[in-house]
Structures are given as structure tokens and as C-alpha cells.
User: Which sequence fits this backbone?
């Protein structure tokens, strides 16, 4: 069987497109398994995912599997999947009738061929992929096993992304709290005051009544100086904290809590170490979490009290542990930032021989710490870095966690020629693929490039470059990106230049990581978890801003309110899961129809959606609404057993055709038009036709 490059690329392209647009875990896994079966001409298959909390394999998805038992959870010493997971080695059997007895096949005499491979990301085991082929067809070949080995990293990444998205959808309230926690940590206040505010927020919003942050001191300590420092505490007595800190220190000494086994992204479900604690003579548990990250964060610990429901519901406990891990990571970032600032303050004395560089580094640190906007962080970093080292372009490559792709930003000093840009866009991915990145960049994966405005836009075009310098970006022991310099000058980069870029990267990456983390948390806080559209709160803020702009510049602003006709029938007749599919389907159509970065689509509540159309008159909005209505009516809902058709009713209003003194007036006008559409028989568009202002329609 020959797998040509075009078919291989098409397979990867389809998976990338589907995973970027699908948030439902079941739908994603079903599509993924179906694509793999078709790609490798398999008749059946299954995806089994490893659950570290249970230390077992769980059957997540099966398609046409002939001998899959009824149970969904398997011990690691069971069957082919357990053997593959434990050994990490793939298993290929061309004919089950000749399979070794130790495989313990359920239907060895029935014939047929199968493949089983381990799914993992870097060193983290995700699960096992099993494929079967009927006995009347040729058995799986070594070539097909190699192909499966080639695509399994992408499959593992998709599965892990799906699991993360599914988990995120269950933690909306927790993400809201994390959003505020991030703002507290990066507000720029006094360090210890920030930690105390952080703990108070944990107590108020997350039911963690008792908490503390402690730091262990490894160097320059005397016999009179305790080996730890209490940085902040809440509702924990100093004497108790000293005992707790001593217990943690003893565990470190006896390897009960090993420093080198800090929780990382490869071990997300580790259970935090528990410590006994008497609360008014009542025994409780305290959870002790080492803060993940680089030093000095690795010497810090977060201690919080347990909640009473942890021993009742294992799933609640599991989510609680994960939440604690996320909190520890957030806190670790803040500690890293403070540690970096402390290092910079100490390094000032060592840089007296080069006051110019010292002042620039300090200026970079201040500027980068003043914003949480990733684009502004990049622009400021590029501007300041130009004072330290010569370059024609500086490029930053990082993985976009929310969108799921690698993105590179190029800052030129002058306009670039086509040859220069093409060479740069080819060289950066080639260099980065040689690093053990997390996630890895495949040979077929494309990077999204963005070119900033040149620092000197009126200079002559630079046609090509002669020398380059690059350095991997490492976050929490993983290669996460690349910093790349090129110059058109005929002077090679030196070891001194490498030292400068290394120092700059240490300062710059911490600020960029903080900004990206803030932006990710901010986006999640304003996103509807089911449809992926903006939520009601974000819509109200955007409408307020656009309303002010519309009145200031005398531009039309239109608003559409849309309601799914007879939505209750979908829930009553087919169940709420199908109802959710209908909402996701309608939201996807809206998102694909509007003008990108101009119009705003949001879920208003329940089965209602809104679309804000800046600089759009009433009849233009009506025509657009009619196209949306027709598209919804013609396009059936996918991913369900029956072909379900959906219709919508739409109300449209415009500021120029209604007496709107405030945003709520425009909402009321569009809502009135929606009421007319529903009373008029549904599946139609109605407009609110009030008095036109200044005779404009």
C-alpha cells in the first residue's frame, strides 16, 4: 500500500482544521478515529486514554470494534493495550491465528490483523491507539506501522487538546477566579503584599480558608537562622506554620517529597503531599504543593487546607487537585518574576563596568513589567533590544496554546525583500524542528507568520541576510519556542552577542509568559464554553463602546438578536446533548459569516444570540440577516443520528432608524423586532422601523 505525500498532507490538514474548530471531546475523538481508520484502511479501532488518577486505561472511543468488552476501565496488566502502554513498544500482528500466546487474544482463531501503538507527548503517556483489519483482507504491514508511528504524535496532541478543552468547559467558575488571581499576582504591587492578597482571594472565592506560602533557604544560612521563611499566611498560626515547615523540610531530606519530581506538564495528575493539622483540636489535612517552574520558584511551597467534600467524591477531589496545580503554576510565575527582578537588582553591581548595558536592561525590565498585552511586550522588547545588538530582523517563535498552532512574529529594522522573507520563513521552522520541542513541530505543520511595521519604514529594502544567531526558548525544562536574529551586514555574530541575547531572553520571556498567561485567562473569562463565542458580559461591553463611537462619528450601528425557533422541542424530543449540538451548529454558522475583527457575535443567553454590526445601516443589516437565516435553514445539524433542520427568527435594529439614547434602547428595539418575527410565524427577519435621524436610512 503506497501512501503518497499529497494524501499524507491532506490527512494532516483535515485533522488540523477539524481540531481547531471542534470543542466537543466526543465529537473530536469520533472524527479523529474515523479519519485514522480511513487513512490506514482499517475496519475497526479504539482509543484508550490513561487516567493517572485511577492508574488505569479508560476506553474513550470505539468504532466497529468486534471484541471490545462491556467494561470501560482496564488495569495496566490487561490485554494488548496494557502491554503496549507498559512497554512503550508497538505491537503488530498480521494474522491473529499466529499471534504469540502471551498476547491472550480473545478471538485468536478468528483471524484478522491488528496494530497497537502508544500515544505520548514528549515523555508523557497519553494512551493507546488500536486498529483492526478483518481476516479477509491483507494484514497490516511494517510500512503501515511506520506511518502510524509517524502520525501518532499529532494524534496524541489532538487527544490531549480535546481532553484539555473538555476539562476547561467544566471549570468556568474556577477560570473566572483564576483570571482575578492573575490580575492580583501581576498588578505590580509590593511582593509580599501581593502574596497576602492572593491568599485572601483564595479564601474568599475558592473555599480555601487556611493557606500559606513558604520559601526554603538553601544558601548562606546560619545555625541561628531557620532554613525556611514564611512569606505570607492566612488563618494559620506562626507556631503551627513553623511545625508544618519543619515537616516539609524533613520530607525533603527523606525523599518523601523529592525536589526533582516537581509536578510538570508531563505529570499533571499528581496528588499533592498531605500534612496533618489540628483545627481547634479537630484533625484536618493540609495540601503542600511545590511551585513548578525554574529556580527560585522550585524552593517555594503553597500550603492550603482541604475541603470536606474531598473524601466523598473522587471526581471532585481530582478536579480540586488539578485546580491547586493551576494555582501553584500561577503563583510560580509570580515567584519567578520576583526572582528575576531580584537577580536584575543584584546584577546591577556586576554591570558597573558597562553602565550603558545595565541601564538598558533595567529599562527593559521596567517597560516589560508595565503591560500584560503580548503585542506591546513584543514591540517594547524589540525596540529596546535594538540598542543592545545589531540585527536586520529579530523573530520570536512560540506556541499559541489557545489556538493550537505555532506563531512567529518578525520585527524588521527596514522593509524586507521577497527573497529575504521567504528564506527567513523557511529557515526558522527548519532550525526549530531540530530541537526537542513541546509540542513538536511536524514536517508538514505550517507556522503562522506576522510581520511588524519596520522600525525605519522609509529605509531602502533589504534584499537578503548574511549571518544568523538563534537560541531556544526554554520554559519549565521544555523547549517552547525560538528567538532568531539575522543581519545583512558582513559581520558574523560573536560569543558576546550570544551572551547578550541569552541575558535578554531571560528578562523578556518571563514578561512575555506573564502576558500570554493573562491573555489566555482573559479570553477564557469572556468566552461561552459551549459555543466558543463571546459571552453576554463581553457583548454588553462591546456594544457600549461601539454605541459611543457611533454617536461620536455619526456612523450607523446595527444590532441583530436571533432566537432558535422551537428550541425547547430539540431538548424535549432528542435530549439536551442534541440541543447543545444545535447551539454549537448555529454559533459556528454565525462565526463563519461575519466580518473578522469587525463584527462581534455573542451568545446572549439560552437559545438567543446577538450580532453587533458597526458602520452597517439598517437595510444592509437586514440583507445580512436574511442570508444568515437562509444558511441556517438549508444546512442541517451535523454529528447527530437524524438529519435535523433548524430555523431562526431575527430582529434587526439600527441607531439611525430608532430613537436610541443608550445601548439598552438599541437592544430593546432589536428585541421588539424579534418579537414581531416570532409572532409573524417565525423563520423570518423583521426590522425595527422608527423615525430616521436626519433623513438617513
Assistant:
Amino acid at each position: 500500500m503506497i501512501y503518497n505525500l499529497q494524501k499524507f498532507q491532506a490527512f494532516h490538514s483535515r485533522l488540523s482544521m477539524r481540531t481547531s474548530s471542534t470543542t466537543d471531546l466526543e465529537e473530536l475523538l469520533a472524527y479523529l478515529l474515523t479519519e485514522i481508520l480511513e487513512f490506514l484502511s482499517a475496519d475497526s479501532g479504539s482509543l484508550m486514554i490513561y487516567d493517572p488518577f485511577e492508574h488505569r486505561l479508560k476506553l474513550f472511543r470505539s468504532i466497529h470494534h468486534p471484541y471490545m468488552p462491556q467494561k470501560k476501565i482496564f488495569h495496566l496488566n490487561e490485554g494488548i493495550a496494557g502491554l503496549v502502554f507498559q512497554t512503550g513498544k508497538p505491537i503488530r500482528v498480521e494474522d491473529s491465528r499466529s499471534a504469540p500466546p502471551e498476547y491472550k487474544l480473545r478471538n485468536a482463531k478468528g483471524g484478522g490483523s491488528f496494530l497497537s501503538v502508544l500515544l505520548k507527548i514528549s515523555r508523557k503517556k497519553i494512551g493507546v491507539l488500536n486498529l483492526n483489519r478483518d481476516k479477509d483482507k491483507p494484514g497490516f504491514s511494517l510500512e503501515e506501522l511506520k506511518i502510524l508511528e509517524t502520525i501518532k504524535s499529532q494524534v496524541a496532541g489532538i487527544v490531549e487538546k480535546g481532553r484539555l478543552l473538555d476539562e476547561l468547559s467544566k471549570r468556568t467558575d474556577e477560570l473566572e477566579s483564576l483570571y482575578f488571581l492573575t490580575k492580583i499576582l501581576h498588578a505590580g504591587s509590593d511582593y509580599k503584599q501581593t502574596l497576602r492578597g492572593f491568599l485572601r482571594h483564595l479564601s474568599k472565592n475558592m473555599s480555601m480558608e487556611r493557606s500559606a506560602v513558604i520559601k526554603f533557604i538553601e544558601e548562606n544560612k546560619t545555625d541561628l537562622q531557620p532554613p525556611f521563611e514564611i512569606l505570607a499566611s492566612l488563618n494559620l498560626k506562626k507556631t503551627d506554620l513553623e511545625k508544618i515547615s519543619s515537616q516539609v523540610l524533613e520530607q525533603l531530606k527523606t525523599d518523601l517529597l523529592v525536589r526533582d519530581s516537581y509536578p510538570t506538564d508531563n505529570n499533571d495528575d499528581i496528588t499533592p503531599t498531605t500534612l496533618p493539622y489540628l483545627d481547634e483540636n479537630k484533625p484536618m489535612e493540609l495540601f503542600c504543593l511545590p511551585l513548578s517552574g525554574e529556580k527560585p520558584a522550585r524552593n517555594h511551597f503553597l500550603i492550603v487546607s482541604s475541603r470536606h467534600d474531598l473524601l466523598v467524591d473522587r471526581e471532585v477531589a481530582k478536579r480540586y487537585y488539578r485546580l491547586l496545580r493551576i494555582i501553584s503554576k500561577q503563583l510560580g510565575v509570580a515567584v519567578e518574576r520576583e526572582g528575576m527582578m531580584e537577580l536584575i537588582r543584584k546584577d546591577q553591581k556586576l554591570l558597573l563596568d558597562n553602565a550603558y548595558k545595565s541601564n538598558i536592561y533595567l529599562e527593559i525590565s521596567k517597560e516589560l513589567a508595565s503591560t500584560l498585552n503580548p503585542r506591546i511586550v513584543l514591540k517594547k522588547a524589540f525596540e529596546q533590544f535594538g540598542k543592545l545588538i545589531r540585527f536586520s530582523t529579530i523573530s520570536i517563535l512560540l506556541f499559541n496554546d489557545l489556538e493550537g498552532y505555532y506563531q512567529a512574529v518578525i520585527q524588521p529594522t527596514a522593509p524586507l525583500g521577497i527573497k529575504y522573507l521567504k528564506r527567513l520563513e523557511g529557515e526558522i521552522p527548519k532550525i526549530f524542528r531540530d530541537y526537542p520541542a513541546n509540542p513538536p513541530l511536524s514536517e508538514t505543520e505550517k507556522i503562522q507568520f506576522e510581520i511588524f511595521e519596520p522600525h525605519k519604514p522609509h529605509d531602502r529594502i533589504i534584499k537578503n541576510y548574511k549571518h544568523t544567531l538563534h537560541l531556544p526558548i526554554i520554559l519549565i525544562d521544555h523547549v517552547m519556542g525560538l528567538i532568531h536574529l539575522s543581519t545583512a551586514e558582513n559581520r558574523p555574530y560573536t560569543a558576546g552577542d550570544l551572551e547578550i541575547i541569552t541575558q535578554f531572553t531571560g528578562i523578556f520571556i518571563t514578561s512575555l509568559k506573564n502576558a500570554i498567561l493573562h491573555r489566555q485567562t482573559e479570553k477564557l473569562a469572556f468566552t461561552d464554553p459551549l459555543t466558543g463565542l463571546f459571552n453576554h458580559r463581553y457583548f454588553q461591553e462591546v456594544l457600549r463602546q461601539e454605541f459611543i463611537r457611533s454617536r461620536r462619528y455619526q456612523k450607523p450601528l446595527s444590532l441583530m438578536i436571533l432566537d432558535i425557533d422551537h428550541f425547547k422541542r430539540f431538548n424535549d424530543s432528542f435530549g439536551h446533548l442534541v440541543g447543545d449540538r444545535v447551539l454549537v451548529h448555529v454559533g459556528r454558522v454565525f462565526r463563519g459569516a461575519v466580518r473578522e475583527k469587525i463584527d462581534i457575535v455573542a451568545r446572549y443567553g439560552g437559545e438567543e444570540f446577538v450580532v453587533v454590526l458597526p458602520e452597517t445601516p439598517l437595510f444592509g443589516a437586514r440583507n445580512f440577516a436574511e442570508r444568515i437565516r437562509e444558511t441556517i435553514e438549508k444546512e442541517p445539524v451535523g454529528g447527530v443520528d437524524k438529519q435535523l433542520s433548524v430555523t431562526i427568527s431575527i430582529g434587526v435594529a439600527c441607531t439611525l432608524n430608532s430613537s436610541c439614547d443608550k445601548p439598552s434602547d438599541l437592544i430593546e428595539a432589536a428585541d421588539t423586532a424579534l418579537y414581531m418575527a416570532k409572532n409573524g410565524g417565525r423563520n423570518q427577519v423583521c426590522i425595527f422601523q422608527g423615525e430616521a435621524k436626519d433623513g438617513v436610512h
